[in-house]
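Sample intake sheet
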Amino acid sequence: MSRIGPDQQRLTTAECGNLVAYLDGELNEAESQAIATKLTHSATARREVEILGKTWELLGHLPWPVAPEDFTERTLNNVRLDAQRGNRLQSVIAHGARKTGRAAVWVAACLLASAAAFAAARWGWPDPSSRLVRDLPLAEHLDEYREVGDFEFLNQLASSPEFNSDRDD
């Protein structure tokens, strides 16, 4: 593997980006010194600078575009319209957020009211099936109780010796 000698070092991307600033004398001392050293020692870097210079020279031969007379006015108007649209967009977003907030409050209130109604119906309203469960033994013997008729028959049974034999013992 061959090593690149100091005379073949290329400019880094950062140095290429700073090359125009170097040529205009706008770089700080450290950056300017680094590029100058590399250009002094590297023929490859000097060729890159020559190519860049020829490119700039060729670009100078191209016709310069001419802006229309109302270019500045149209640009400023577009900037103003964009700023107004941005304010309108913020206004629409804020209005939408307020409507969404109100809707969320209403949904929460409806859910809370539904939960309260469910709780009241579940625990506050009497359960008809609980009475049926409690009175199930009575319901199972209802036909027999109907045959008895009234309490007089039950009193006679209570006073009869067949039913009182257990009490005497």
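Comment: The mean pLDDT is 82. The chain has nine helices and no strands.
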